[in-house]
Each structure stands twice: as structure tokens, then as C-alpha cells.
Amino acid sequence: MRSKMNCHKNGNMSKILIYMFLIAFGLFMIYPLLWVVAASFKPNEDIFKSLSLIPSKLVTDSYINGWKGTGQYTFGKFLINTFIMVIPTIIFTIISSTVVAYGFARFDFPLKRILFALMISTLMLPDSVIIIPRYILFNKFGWLNSYKPFIIPALLASTPFFVFMMVQFLRGLPKELEESAIIDGCNSFQTLIKIIVPLCKPAIISMIIFQFIWTWNDFLNTLIYINSVEKYTVSLGLRMSIDGTSVINWNQIMAMTVISMLPCIIIFFSAQKYFVEGIATTGLKG
Could you tell me if 145 and 228 are in contact, meaning their C-beta atoms sit under 8 angstroms apart? Predict the structure, then answer.
């Protein structure tokens, strides 16, 4: 009897220690985010003096002044520009990646394996290798200083990661559903729209989250292709805030950083259920 009680106590103690460790680790991981939020309410001279999250003096106008910006355009302009670039990129990525993945997963055509292998091999190609030839190509097309280098390649399924993810997800779906749709008179396109796409909802939402965060936070490519301040995105706008004045208002920059993070945080937590489901089921064959 005593041995059972001791085992029960030891088990409870182990759970308590595990929970304490997870809480401490979670606070450690989320501390940089909390520090950025706290810094947006601190006086400019106190931000880098300590690691404390409690400001010595509460500053409430950092968000208002940061939104006004330091130049001709407000931060709202950069936010709108980012949405103009991100939303079409996401839509075209979903359409093109789903169609290409459906072709690889369900149809037999000449050189299918070779083409699929070539697509997968591009996953191992560093992005820095193709920066110069891609810039030369987009320059000849006349796409520089616009959002076309982001939107048009998305229409052509230029991200092999999403194609591969969708292929693996489609391979886990039973083919009997498509066969029954064909018997009912649906063609391949109708089967894709009416049967496949609703079943791929978790994978599509995972694709949306990935593409939204990657494109929203992209700094290097926007720096290369966009040279007009009028078309700057959030990442370039934040960088310009550092270079634009001799005295850097860090609390305003931190405030705009918090605002720029909000869309990514909102879209992730609002679709977290489907995101986890999509990642968990991708790669499983039924």
C-alpha cells in the first residue's frame, strides 16, 4: 500500500517538475516578444539599459508617432503595400500548387518521375545562388520596382515546398472518392474543385500560413526588387525608420514592430487547429 502511495507521489512530483520546466522554457522563448512590447512603452533612453519588462516611465504616444512616420508616407501606407503584395501571392500560390500537385499525385504522363525529381531537387538549391540570374530576368521583363517578382512566379507554382507538401497530402486521400465522382459524371477539374479541394483544407491552410509569414517578413527580396519608397513594405519601412533620422526613436520602432507582428500572430492562432492537422497528416499514405 505504501509503495503504491509512494509511486503515486513520485508520479505527481514528476508531472509538476515537467510542467514547471515547460512553463519556464515557454517564458524563455516568449521573452523577446514581451520585451519588444514592453520597449514600445518605455522612454527612448531606457530601452537598452536593462532587461526589465516594467518601464520606469510609461510612454503612450509611441504608437501614434510611429504610425505617422518620419517622412512623406505613414506606416499605414507600408502596411497596405504589404497586403497588396501578400494577398495575391497567397491566392496564386494556393491555386498553382494545388493544380500541379494534383497532376503529380493522380495522373500519369511522360517524364513524370524525372520532372518530379527535378522539382524536389530545387528544394536543395540555396536561394542566394539564383538571386543574380533572377534579378537579370526580372529586369529584362520590366518587373523591377513592382510586386510582379512576387505575384507572377506564385502563379506558376514556383515554390516546390508547397507542391511537395500537397502531393504528400493528396497521396493520403482515398482514390475511391474521385472514382465515385467520375462515375457521377464529373471531369478531372470538377473532381478537383468539388472533391479534392474541400478535403485538402488543412493542407491549404498550412500553405496560407507559411506563405503569409514568409512573404510578410521578406526583407532581402523586397530590398532587391523595390526601390521606390511609395511601394515599400513593412520590413523596408521599419528599416527606413532607422536610417531616416539622426536620432533613432526606438520606442516608436518597437511599437511599429508590434503592429507588423500582429497579422502573423492573428493568422497563425486563428488557423492553428488546421495547421497542426495539415502538418500531422502530410506524408501519411492511406
Answer: yes
Q: What is the DSSP letter of 195?
A: I
C-alpha cell at 90: 497567397
Collect contacts of 2-5 with beta carbons under 8 A, ≥24 apart: none
- The pLDDT tens digits of the residues spanning 44-94 come to 888 888 778 888 888 888 899 889 876 788 999 999 999 999 999 999 999
CATH number at residue 251: 1.10.3720.10
Query: Is 286 within the bounds of a domain?
Result: no
Q: What is the pTM of this model?
A: 0.85
In a domain, 137, yes or no: yes
d(Cα 131, Cα 218) in Å, to the nearest integer?
A: 14
**DSSP one-letter string for 22-71:** HHHHHHHHHHHHHHHHHHTTS-GGGTTT---SS-SS---SHHHHHHH-SS
